[in-house]
């Protein structure tokens, strides 16, 4: 469960978001749409604790941003899967290791890591690229690695920031299908996209944001 | 289990950085080399000065009336005095021979008799070469019957002590400077190795890695850098020692302890440097 | 004019492109479409001399890849405007400086640089962000900076790799309009995109590529 | 025009790198400091040994038959010999006084007469303290009438020459080592400063910047690092010199030339280090 209460946040000398109220129930799939610079990524950053609300507070699966200490942050993040808009893959290890890394940090056993990573690589259609370095992948392939990394440790919510921006029709449908499948297993999904049409078509809840405010 | 991960990961870090790892190891090795050269130099200089001190003898001149029998007793008494290490008898005749050899003149030809006295030459134990202790021993000796005079080359002792003081002063200052230089160089090197990975550290934190988890591989990496830098510096030190012995024909002594110390210093600085460097990124907001 | 003669190129132990023949006349606007990993970016890299053909050769406005020396490369690149899929902005200088940089390296006078950069910033709608660092921009804003940098020194051809992937409908239309405007002034444009529909709609020539081969 | 751009850009690079610039400057300063300490130490040691040499005097003993008048002529002849710097007359009587002061015995009481001779003490010019030249001068002096004997403390000269040789050997080796260390440290530091910008260099090349254009700001940056590191090291050197004078009360001489050399070395290494480091990225494919 993710819940925003009157949350405001602004970057130093720059826009941000204002007075956001939002409630995403467990198991829900919502889209966050809006034009470039609207504040979609900022909302996701707030959930991901990359930034903290300057006013208001956020409830995250039992945690409240006003009570969270620095020590809690890693543990909360592990329960959230994030697909970054700029991917943020580690440039110095291959695709397999990039995905495995999300499991290593939470202390999963080696044999289990192997099995799980190969599984997820198959799901995003990149089994044949598992030993490549991220720089040796096309833009769309990198995006799929980023998605795989977010999915791999079965978080309670997945935040996806423009996860299909670099993907062709076919791949986009596949990724969306994968997200739907994961959602059906009970994981909430919050997906930021500038593509209102696509979001609308799925029939899920669509939250529209513009200039840092929720408009519908 | 998690430490095992850190050990493998620390090693992988080295492989990933490649070129810059060599730069780091060489920098560390050179810093440690400097420390080592200093330590060996200082230690050898110290030994030389100590040896000079040991060579200072105390001379006990006997009255002409003392018989060989008495001399034997005096010798026994001398050996009982605390601080006396060895006692050597130099007869009137020995003294004359020595004099003639040194000055090339026959005094008996001039004076018609041997004006020199029999004496004991006393070597003191190492720690007794200080003015106070020497004074005390001389006092004790003077009280013995049959002893006419006791001499000791105070002037030389003073010179040696002065040099020891200067040596100590320079040694400690230079040592502090070199330790400081190596400290800064090594921790800077490790820091630079980590700066280039700040992007990665940020990603790790975003993925929910705990600070300890992120830090550990870097500590291990620092440890490796210290070890490899240390080994390389030992090599370089051996080369220097070899060159000093063969090219300058100096009698250089090398001590295992110095080697151990150099290695230890490298490892400590490598690990602490990593700790300090990584701390900066872990404290940042996010 | 950009012309490929039977060009083949493959990455070490990885796909690439095979036997590409392509002719883009001066002043033409063509789309390069195809699924993720098809080889679109690779074709652009070949034009941009980031990679060299292993077989065949490429003609670039009078230069032939078989005769180009290392020394020529910078001068050829200056005549080509490239919008990289991953933006490649310089992280340590602000938006204005990032764009100005493309002019500085070719030795444009300072006063001229100022005027030109402000002009282009207005065109892409980022005048108010000119003093921000790239990291302080939203994904779409970064993309527009990358586009501005490619346009600023009026190249004879612009290569745009997925330049609207992170942009909302409105911004996308604006950027496309801008590219059309530039094209009308005589600059060729080659734009890689996974969005076949969008390309088709414009009525321009669309080249389809899949698994490293041109299929139409 | 384009150089002006490089100068501004080189400075901007420093501002952009912030933290790591301090690390670089400090590393460079420490390396140069080491070079400076060595140079000052070596130079002072050299001076001390030279001064010792200058103090070695040649003694010319005159026959008892020589009158004051003749001594005056001998003095004049001595001064004409090449290599002789100054000549001082020590009469029979002066010599006796000195002897008594030194040995505390009155020889006249013993021998009934003054056995010592009048002499000239000769100081040689700096460059004449070598065995061959001393020998030659002695030969010339011996030929003068009225001269009974000429002595010179060969043994001391030998010792000093031995020490000079050792000093030279150690000095040159240590100097080479330190120069080498500073070379590696400084060029590594500059290299690390550039490694962290490899991404940026790649982007510049992709935008069509020529190698020279990319290189120049880095050369300027290396120059700045050398200058700032050099200035900081001069400060540190002044501190060391001050401490040596006041804390160890050594008579340390500092030479402007050494300061100039240290600065120059820093700048050269900074610029060359940049050149070398940047070259690697410019040669890469793309
Ligand atoms: N780190 C930052 N520092 C300062 N300003 C920022 C920062 N990140 C974003 N901004 C600004 O905040 C506003 C909202 O940015 P945000 O990234 O949330 O937009 P977005 O909706 O994700 O847009 P896009 O679809 O282009 O990614 C933008 O105007 C942006 O310039
Ligand atoms: N530097 C590289 N080294 C090795 N393989 C590479 C490299 N760059 C791309 N590839 C591979 O070459 C193929 C074509 O890549 P390319 O980037 O041209 O695809 P693309 O059509 O641009 O795809 P996308 O729409 O996802 O960006 C892909 O399979 C990719 O993995
Ligand atoms: Mg965004
Ligand atoms: Mg691509």
Structure description:
The complex is a heterotetramer, with 2 copies of chain A (216 residues) and 2 copies of chain B (286 residues). Chain A has 216 residues and is α/β, with parallel strands linked by helices. Chain A has 7 helices and 10 strands. Chain A has helices at 40-47, 72-78, 95-104, 110-123, 139-151, 169-184, 196-202, and strands at 2-10, 16-24, 29-33, 55-60, 63-64, 80-83, 157-161, 188-193, 205-210, 213-214. In chain A, the strands form 2 sheets. In chain A, strands 6-7-8-3-9-10 form a 6-stranded mixed β-sheet, with helices on both faces. In chain A, helix 3 (95-104) packs across helix 4 (110-123). The mean pLDDT of chain A is 90. With 286 residues, chain B is of the alpha+beta class. Chain B has 2 domains: 2-51 and 158-285, no CATH class; 57-152, Alpha-Beta Plaits (2-Layer Sandwich), CATH 3.30.70.3040. In chain B, strands 2-3-1-4 form a 4-stranded antiparallel β-sheet. In chain B, helix 1 (2-17) crosses helix 9 and helix 2 packs across helix 10 (256-283). The two termini of chain B are 28 Å apart. The model of chain B has no long low-confidence stretch (mean pLDDT 81). The chains are: A alpha/beta (216), B alpha+beta (286). At the A-C interface, helix 5 and helix 6 of A face helix 5 and helix 6 of C. The structure holds adenosine-5'-triphosphate (ATP) (2 copies) and magnesium ion (MG) (2 copies). One magnesium ion binds next to helix 1 of chain C.
């Amino acid at each position: 469960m993710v819940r925003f209460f009157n949350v405001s946040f602004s970057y130093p000398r720059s826009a941000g978001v204002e007075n956001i109220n939002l409630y995403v129930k467990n198991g829900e799939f919502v889209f966050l749409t809006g034009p470039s610079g609207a504040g979609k990524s900022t909302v996701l950053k707030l959930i991901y604790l990359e930034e903290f609300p300057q006013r208001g507070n956020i409830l995250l699966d039992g945690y409240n941003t006003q009570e969270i200490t620095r020590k809690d942050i890693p543990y909360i993040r592990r329960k959230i899967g994030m697909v970054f808009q700029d991917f943020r893959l580690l440039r110095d290890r291959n695709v397999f290791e990039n995905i495995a890394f999300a499991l290593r940090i939470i202390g999963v056993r080696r044999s289990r890591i192997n099995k799980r990573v190969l599984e997820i690589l198959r799901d995003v259609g990149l089994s044949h690229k598992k030993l490549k370095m991220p720089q040796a992948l096309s833009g769309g392939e990198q995006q799929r690695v980023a998605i795989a990394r977010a999915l791999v440790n079965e978080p309670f919510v997945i935040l996806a920031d423009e996860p299909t921006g670099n993907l062709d029709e076919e791949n986009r449908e596949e990724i969306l299908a994968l997200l739907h499948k994961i959602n059906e297993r009970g994981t909430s999904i919050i997906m930021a996209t500038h593509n209102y049409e696509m979001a609308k078509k799925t029939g899920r809840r669509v939250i529209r944001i513009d200039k840092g405010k929720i408009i519908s | 289990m998690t430490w095992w991960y850190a050990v493998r990961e620390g090693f992988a870090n080295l492989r990933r950085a490649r070129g810059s790892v060599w730069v780091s190891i060489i920098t560390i090795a050179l810093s440690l080399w400097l420390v080592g050269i200093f330590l060996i130099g200082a230690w050898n200089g110290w030994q030389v000065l100590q040896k000079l001190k040991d060579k200072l003898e105390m001379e006990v001149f006997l009255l002409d009336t003392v018989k060989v029998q008495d001399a034997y007793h005096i010798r026994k008494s001398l050996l009982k005095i605390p601080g006396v290490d060895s006692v050597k008898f130099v007869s009137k005749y020995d003294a004359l021979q020595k004099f003639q050899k040194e000055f090339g003149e026959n005094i008996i030809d001039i004076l018609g008799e041997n004006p020199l006295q029999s004496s004991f030459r006393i070597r003191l134990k190492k720690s007794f070469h200080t003015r106070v202790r020497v004074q005390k021993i001389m006092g004790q000796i003077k009280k013995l019957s049959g002893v006419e005079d006791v001499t000791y080359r105070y002037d030389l002792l003073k010179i040696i002590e002065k040099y020891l003081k200067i040596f100590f002063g320079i040694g400690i200052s230079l040592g502090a400077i070199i330790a400081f230089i190596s400290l800064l160089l090594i921790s800077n090197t490790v820091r630079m190795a980590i700066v280039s990975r700040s992007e990665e550290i940020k990603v790790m934190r975003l993925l929910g890695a705990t600070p300890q988890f992120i830090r550990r591989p870097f500590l291990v990496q620092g440890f490796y850098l210290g070890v490899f830098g240390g080994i390389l510096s030992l090599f370089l030190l051996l080369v220097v020692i070899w060159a000093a012995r063969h090219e300058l024909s100096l009698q250089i002594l090398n001590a295992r302890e110095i080697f151990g110390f150099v290695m230890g210093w490298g490892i400590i600085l490598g690990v602490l440097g990593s700790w300090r460097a990584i701390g900066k990124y872990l404290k940042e907001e996010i």
